[in-house]
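Sharing a chain and its predicted structure for anyone who wants a worked example. Both blocks are below, sequence first, tokens second.
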Amino acid sequence: MVFTKISNKKKMKNGLFIAFLIILCLLIKIFYIQFIQGKELSYLAYQQQTLDRSINPKRGTIYDATGKNELAVSSTVETVTINPGNIKKEEKEKVAKALSEIFELEYETILKKVNKRSSIETIIKKVEKDKTDKLRIWMEENNIKTGINIDEDTKRYYPYSTLAAQIIGFCGSDNQGLDGIEAKYEEELKGKKGAIQRHIDAKGGEIGHEGENYVSAIDGNDLVLTIDLTIQSIAEKYLKEACIDNECTDGGNIVIMNPQNGDILAMATYPTYNLNEPYEPYTDELKAIWERLEQSEKTKNLQAVWRNKAIADTYEPGSVFKVITASAALEEKIVTDIDKQGQFACTGGIEVAGVRIKCWRYYRPHGAESLRQALMNSCNPVFIGLGQQMGVEKYYSYLNKFRLLNKTEIDLPGEANSIFLAEKKAGPVELATISFGQRFEITPIQLVTAVSAIANGGTSVTPRVVKQIIDSQTGEMKNIEIKTNGTVISKETSEKVLSMMESVVSEGTGKNAKVLGYRIGGKTGTSEDGVNTNKYVTSFCGVAPIDNPQVVVLVTLYNPTGEGGHQGGGVAAPVGGKIFSEILPYLNVEQGNKEEVEEIEKVEVPDIMGKTLSEAEKIIKEKGLEFVMQNSSKEENIDKEKVIIKNQTPSAGIILNKGNKIYIEL
């Protein structure tokens, strides 16, 4: 009996102890949930009970340099979503059928979404309003008021399709910038998302009667570029023409820069692509085989055309680089009189450290020359000699001053750096080849930036493509500052080099770039594209007007294989001349060669916007101008009495030389 009492007492103690442990564990769990996980669980509960639909902001508009022409805009579209829990069971199939028919989607896919046990499902994004209006009518006719949401959205659109494609870049399906300006200035352009909030229960039904909570989206800021629509159009048309006429297998690029402030007025790449369809094939050849290509091949082709060759690809500049060597030699007083006859002598080559390096005209040497004549003749031995006199250390110090050893820091993604042999590894032969522009690589933008320092009197300026940011909320304009990087050469040296460059165009290898009435300087270049590839890069870098430089133009053509050959003077210089002939009058640059001015007949560009092609053709011909259609390859099938002019370049009111071309879009 006593044993039984002790046993019961022990059981009670054990039971109480176990109960105490259970209560203690529960208290610890409650403490953990309340104080450790409290914030996280509250957030999860809020997420579960709150149905959020995001509202995409309008991405900022991108304007050209005038601030008038829209290069990238966001148009209003709509996105359709559903709340499966708010759609009655007996109506699910009917809803799925309607959605699939209106938006031309797979019925089975939509039915699965309608039957899901989720709070929200996306049916279709960025659809035009005429389609969603059909859905609104159907919902009204079928008395469906909940479960289907139609929210405002935005879609990126590029009015000029291919213009400045590699500069502007494009956006993904979520409106995020993926390339070019769109990617570089993502934070400025993207804006801030808004939201529509609604409280729901576990089944997706609405809680309460307070309705939706609407949080407005904040639109992105606008950008004003330094790119001028007219100058960009001129650069692109002549680049395309040059690449086709000279059969440039690897395309080309043109960069036009204002040397005074670093503004990039144009940056053209060929071939190019349609910004509105960045994932589509961009040539007739690719279109014919596109469906048969592996995805990796498609990606490779697309990335090649998206690539901005002017900043991302390096090349040997060839003889254009001789203006850098000449500038350094003059600044170091190795040469003081650029016209001293017989200061140099070309015998067809020069021996450096036991290696004989030939002049390009070794078979008929240039003989006695001044520095001016050496640049006009593009004589290799003279510039090799100048490099030798400076030595590796001094020469590399000028490469650094001209910012040729560093990126330019242009405000575009994907900029590459130059490829030079390290200074300590550069011997006499390496210095010799660098002195006349070979056996190293730079980007076109690096060369334009260096020549701009010569053109503006000796100051290195950082190139830029965005000059203003406009606040979407206040309209306030923020100017992007002009960045300078110190003095490279003196004004006196600058003037001497520009004078020699003018002689190159007036009498030397660059005479094909001459434009009647204007003082233009330049330098041509031809180099091998790699070692033993049998490919060449031909180029021309021009400056105008020489007495007050406003533009530096660099034309680079990769592997021209046409009948015109691959020499810079014969292939690239004429392109530079055509560009100058149109952009200098457009920029109202005064003509410097007064004796030639009277020979040029000027005409004002007429306004042909909105007119039929037949009317426009008559007006243009009466003015003594020519016209070229940019967006039609089948002129013979066009009804000239019906098609309307949508766009013209240059715009009305611009003064051109008689015989120049007007480019039109129908």
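Comments welcome. The longest helix spans residues 2-36.
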